[in-house]
Known about the structure:
Layout: E1 5-14, H1 19-35, E2 40-42, H2 70-82, E3 85-95, E4 98-106, E5 112-117, E6 142-144, E7 149-152, H3 161-169, E8 174-178, E9 182-183, H4 185-210, E10 213-217, E11 219-223, E12 232-235, E13 239-241, E14 247-250, E15 257-264, H5 265-274, H6 277-280
Parallel strand pairs: 1-2, 1-11, 2-3, 7-8, 8-10
Antiparallel strand pairs: 1-15, 3-4, 4-5, 6-7, 9-12, 10-13, 11-12, 13-14
Amino acid sequence: MRVDSFKVGLVQMAMGADVETNRLRAVEQVRAAAGRGAQVICLPELFCTPYLCQVEDTALFDLAETIPGPSTEVMGEVARQQGVVIAVPLFERRAPGLYHNSVAIMDADGSLAGVYRKMHIPDDPAYYEKFYFTPGDLGFKTFDTRIGRIGVLICWDQWFAEAARLTALRGAEVILCPTAIGWHPEEKAEHGHAQQDAWQTVQRGHAIANGVYLAAANRVGHEKPPVGGAGIEFWGHSFICDPQGRVLAQADASESTVLFADVDRGRMEDVRRNWPFLRDRRVDAYGGITERFLDGETPE
C-alpha cells in the first residue's frame, strides 16, 4: 500500500572525460541521496559522458551502451540495495548504427521498469543531437514503480506543452526532466538571464497546467569540445516545483549537489480539485493540435 507522499532527489553534477569515473561519482551521489531519504532519484541527461554533441564525430558513438548494460547493471544494484527508484539517463546503443538519448527507470527491487527515449531532438550550434540520436519511438510514457507513477521527459522535450500534457494524462505524479542545458559563453551577458528564466518558467507552467510535480536535473561545469569552440557553460539551477508551480528546492549555477522535495499526493488532489484544468479541457475542439500549422484555417 502506497503512502501519501514520497521524496524525490535530484542529482546535479559535473561530468569529466572518463565514463567510469562519472558513473562511480553518480553512484556515490545516488547513495548519498538515498541515505537522506530520497525514494525517487534522477541523474542529469547523459550523466556518464561529457556532452558529446558539441561536435559531430563518429568516434563518439563508442561512448554509447546497451540497455541492459553497464549503467543499468550498476544502478539496478544500487536501487535494489537502497530500495529506491533511479532514473538513469544514457546514450543508448540499440543496434549497429542506431542510437537514442534514453532514460532507463530502475525500480526499487533493481529491475528495469522501462525505457523512455527522447522524442524531440534539437539541432543548434554546439547541440548537434540529430547527428547522434534517432527520435524516440516509444511515445510519452509513465512508469508505475514501487514508489510512485513516474513520467520522464529529456531536455528539449521539456519545452513542449504537448509532451508534458500527454505524460500527465498517463497518470504521472511527478515528471522527471534530466537535462544538459547551458549558455554559449559569448551570449551569457546579453541573453543568459532570459534564457534560464524561460527554461524554468515553461516547466513551472507545465506543472501548473497539468497539476503535477516537476523535477529538472541539470549538469554544471564549463565543457569545451576537443578542438576549438568556446564550449557550453551548463547553468545548473536544477529545481523541483509543485502542482501550483511553486519552487520547492533549487540549486545554484555551479555546485554539485542533491536537491530534495516531497511529492504529496494529497496536495496534487487538492490543487486539481480547485484548478480543474483536466476536467474542463475541450477534447472535442483540439483536432488541429496534430497539424504542423493551421494557416488560419479552422479544423473540422
